[in-house]
Design brief:
The chain is α/β, with parallel strands linked by helices and 293 residues long. The protein has two domains: 85 residues, Rossmann fold (3-Layer(aba) Sandwich); 134 residues, 3-Layer(aba) Sandwich (Rossmann fold). Helix content is 39%, strand content 16%. It is built from ten helices and eleven strands. The strands form three sheets. Strands 1-11-8-7-5-6 form a six-stranded parallel beta sheet. Strand 2, helix 2 and strand 3 form a beta-alpha-beta unit. Helix 6 packs across helix 10.
Length: 293
């Protein structure tokens, strides 16, 4: 059983990006610049943003963080996005989700310049993804592709089952796995909360992607022998015996499912690290698109 270690795969991506950044700096050019907007002080969001800043440093990228109060008016957030849209020194923009309920996430996503949309959520970029055109791939699905590539997981002709249909992971993941690309060419079944016979469908999967946000939902009786399992879930579960008072759980019951798999991602230490790698790759692409022309 192969552990698809996100730390190893992400390190490879970052090493390549660092060499590209070094070459840019030696040529007298600026480093790529990723700007993040954080609304409020959600603990998980704080952790994610801090990790993104750290990873930018490790690849030689510039990073900046715009902090806004949790009660900020939607118009103020949109104005902050527009300022970054108009800043030629900013290559990529991300607004950390989730946002407070009084702010429309869709309106915020659509406010980001598609050419700087390194999260890959803008409708125009999703439209290009569906049509197989060059674009920014949503960071988590992109990270999964990079991981499959790094560990040389063969996907051609395989049956892939994706559990979860969010616009952030499940839906784009299903499109990518079915696409005519190196880590694609699968026959894909997309499952969700209304899917009948979910267990039987999962048992057909050569590649199973769990992205539904329910801790330890996927049990060993849902996984066939030799399957490749990609666990996208990351949920804080209260545990008084843990040092921090909680533990991080994935969507897969790792300890019981792993022995059945040919390969599996751990949580933490798997897809989460690759999401940031995908984000950094998109930022370099934005730089190339916007500044090399």
């Amino acid at each position: 059983m192969l552990v698809l270690d996100g730390k190893i795969a992400a390190a490879s991506v970052k090493e390549d990006l660092l060499s590209q950044t070094d070459a840019l700096l030696k040529a007298g050019k600026p480093a790529p610049h990723l700007a993040a907007i954080l609304v409020g002080n959600n603990g998980a969001s704080e952790t994610y943003v801090a990790s993104k800043v750290k990873n930018c440093e490790e690849t030689g990228f510039q990073s900046s963080l715009v902090r806004l109060d949790e009660n900020v008016e939607e118009a103020v957030l949109l104005a902050a996005i527009e300022k970054l849209n108009n800043d030629p020194g900013v290559d990529g923009i991300l607004v950390q989700l989730p946002l407070p309920k009084h702010i429309s996430e869709q309106k915020v996503i659509e406010a980001i310049n598609p050419a700087k949309d390194v999260d890959g959520f803008h409708p125009s970029n999703i439209g290009k993804l569906v049509q197989g055109l060059p674009t920014f791939i949503p960071a988590t699905p992109y990270g999964i592709l990079l991981m499959l590539e790094h560990f040389k997981i063969d996907t051609k002709g395989k049956h892939a089952v994706v559990i979860g249909r969010s616009n952030i992971v499940g839906r784009p993941m299903s499109i990518l796995l079915s696409s005519n690309i190196a880590q694609g060419n699968c026959t894909v079944t997309l499952c969700h909360s209304h899917t009948h016979n979910l267990k039987e469908i999962c048992l057909q999967a050569d590649i199973l992607v769990a992205a539904l946000g329910k801790p330890e939902f996927v049990l060993p009786e849902m996984v066939k022998e030799g399957a490749v399992v990609v666990d996208v879930g990351i949920t804080r579960v209260t545990d008084p015996t843990a040092k921090k008072g909680f533990r991080i759980k994935g969507d897969v019951q790792y300890h019981s499912v792993a022995p059945k798999c040919s390969a599996i991602t751990p949580v933490p230490g798997g897809v989460g690290l690759m999401t940031i790698a995908g984000l950094l790759k998109n930022t370099m692409l934005a730089y190339r698109n916007n500044r090399d022309n």
